[in-house]
């Protein structure tokens, strides 16, 4: 037998049999199908979009002036239906190609010696109703005016005729030292109130639009509900992606469902870094610390893996709360929401991995009972994401940015029309 013949015979012997080849093809197809299934599930590609179910009296009055509320929120096609990716993009990038608005930093000395700061941005155009309107903005946890999502929103609001005042949470700015043994907490409204009072005093003719993002949403709602006088000169309030009750949220934040425990760990790690960067101001030997704050609390801080541990060992003690339960009950806006009488829009996303669905019954129930409250719940958006875009790349301006400004414009126009109607009725009464 020749060598060539032998090689041909061997090649036929080594060639896979049809049955084996068929099995191999089926395995590859099954693997591809499994990968596609995981991608579809992880990216939530089969999730539909829908129009908002808005039934409150406030919603009925404003729908004609708020086109965004009459349409579906449509996220980017490939990844926009994943709340995790929307949240991660917000947390990592903030925004895409964010602008750099120019503002002036203001300093306020608080009664306990703390130095509060906020940044003031003047409007870049005339407002649609021609009035002097100031947006007072409270950012999310450990955030400030230099965060990209804040810069993007402020730039858009300025171009729509709004003056913007943005609170820098106490201790959040890396280049501003603490001047008292205290930093921002979950529901402390002192610094926000000081900023609002400054605006009212400096611009006596201005009217206010109150805006809060995430933790900032809790602070602004609590501030408005604490004292009735806090609502004077306030046209409306917007809260975006807050959780409403820290007491009810603490249990869900320890669950692995939707990776909340992982997010909890990441946020706690960031808080630890901020607190430890102010170690001397908060725990130094020369510092007159709160009586309940001890040196052992610093060692517990190093080992903390959740926000609840940090709140229990450090944050609640800045204000003298005897327990974590008392701290969360007193600092949450849930017990103040029913005291807010100005138009209030509460915005959350159904796929927000940080806010458990059980917490969304709070704004839903409130909007059903109160005519001045509107609850907007898109299916997608994550936590402070709400990116828009055709397929892959998001646009710099988000649906959230547009909605807040459009809602504020509608309220301003509504108030202007009410005022004109009142003036007309008064003139007619005088003529009679």
From TrEMBL:
GO CC, any one term: sperm flagellum
Transmembrane segments: 21-40
EC code: 3.1.1.23, 3.1.1.6, 3.1.1.79
Domain of life: Eukaryota
A Pfam family it matches: Abhydrolase_1
GO BP: acylglycerol catabolic process; medium-chain fatty acid biosynthetic process; medium-chain fatty acid catabolic process; sperm capacitation; steroid hormone receptor signaling pathway
This protein's UniProt keywords: Cell membrane, Glycoprotein, Hydrolase, Lipid degradation, Lipid metabolism, Membrane, Serine esterase, Signal-anchor, Transmembrane, Transmembrane helix
Record's subcellular location: Cell membrane
Alphabetized SUPFAM superfamilies for the sequence: alpha/beta-Hydrolases
Chief subcellular location: membrane
Enzymatic reactions: a triacylglycerol + H2O = a diacylglycerol + a fatty acid + H(+); Hydrolyzes glycerol monoesters of long-chain fatty acids; hexadecanoate ester + H2O = an aliphatic alcohol + hexadecanoate + H(+); a butanoate ester + H2O = an aliphatic alcohol + butanoate + H(+)
Entry membrane topology: Single-pass type II membrane protein
AB hydrolase-1 domain mapped to chain residues: 134-389
Enzyme class of the recorded protein, top EC level: hydrolase
Catalytic residue positions: 214, 352, 383
MF GO annotations: acetylesterase activity; monoacylglycerol lipase activity
PANTHER family given in the database record: ABHYDROLASE DOMAIN-CONTAINING PROTEIN, MONOACYLGLYCEROL LIPASE ABHD2
Family under the similarity heading: Belongs to the AB hydrolase superfamily. AB hydrolase 4 family.
Record-given protein name: Monoacylglycerol lipase ABHD2
Lineage: Eukaryota, Metazoa, Chordata, Craniata, Vertebrata
């Amino acid at each position: 037998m020749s060598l060539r013949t032998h090689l041909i015979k061997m090649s036929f012997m080594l060639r896979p049999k049809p049955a084996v080849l068929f099995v191999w093809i089926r395995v590859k197809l099954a693997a591809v199908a499994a990968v596609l299934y995981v991608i579809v599930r992880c990216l939530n590609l089969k999730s539909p979009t829908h129009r908002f179910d808005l039934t409150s009296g406030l919603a009925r009055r404003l729908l004609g002036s708020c086109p965004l509320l009459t349409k579906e929120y449509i996220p980017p096609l490939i990844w926009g239906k994943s709340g995790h990716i929307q949240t991660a993009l917000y947390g990592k990038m903030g925004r895409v190609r964010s602008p750099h608005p120019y503002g002036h930093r203001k300093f306020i000395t608080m009664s306990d010696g703390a130095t509060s700061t906020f940044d003031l941005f003047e409007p870049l155009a005339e407002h649609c109703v021609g009035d002097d309107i100031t947006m007072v903005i409270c950012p999310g946890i450990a955030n400030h005016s230099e965060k990209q999502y804040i810069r993007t929103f402020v730039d858009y609001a300025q171009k729509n005729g709004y003056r913007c005042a943005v609170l820098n949470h106490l201790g959040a700015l890396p280049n501003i030292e603490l001047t008292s043994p205290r930093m921002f907490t979950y529901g402390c409204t002192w610094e926000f109130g000081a900023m609002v009072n400054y605006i009212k005093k400096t611009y006596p003719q201005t009217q206010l639009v109150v805006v809060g993002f995430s933790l900032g949403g809790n602070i602004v709602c609590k501030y408005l509900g604490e004292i009735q006088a806090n609502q004077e000169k306030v046209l409306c309030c917007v809260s975006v992606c807050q959780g409403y009750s820290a007491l009810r949220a603490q249990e869900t934040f320890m669950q692995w469902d939707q990776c909340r425990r992982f997010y909890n760990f990441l946020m706690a790690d960031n808080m630890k870094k901020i607190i430890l960067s102010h170690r001397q101001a908060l725990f130094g030997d020369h510092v007159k610390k709160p009586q309940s704050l001890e040196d052992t609390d610093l060692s517990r801080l190093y080992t903390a893996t959740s926000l609840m541990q940090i709140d229990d060992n450090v944050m609640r003690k800045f204000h003298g709360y005897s327990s974590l339960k008392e701290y969360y009950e007193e600092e949450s806006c849930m017990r103040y929401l029913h005291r807010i009488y100005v138009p209030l829009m509460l915005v959350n996303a159904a796929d927000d991995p940080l806010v458990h669905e059980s917490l969304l019954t709070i704004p839903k129930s409130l909007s059903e009972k109160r005519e001045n409250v509107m609850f907007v719940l898109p299916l997608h958006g994550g936590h402070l994401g709400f990116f828009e875009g055709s397929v892959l790349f998001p646009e710099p301006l988000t649906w959230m940015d547009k909605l807040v400004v459009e809602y504020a414009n509608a309220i301003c126009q509504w108030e202007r029309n009410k005022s004109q109607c009142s003036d007309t009725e008064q003139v007619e009464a005088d003529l009679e």
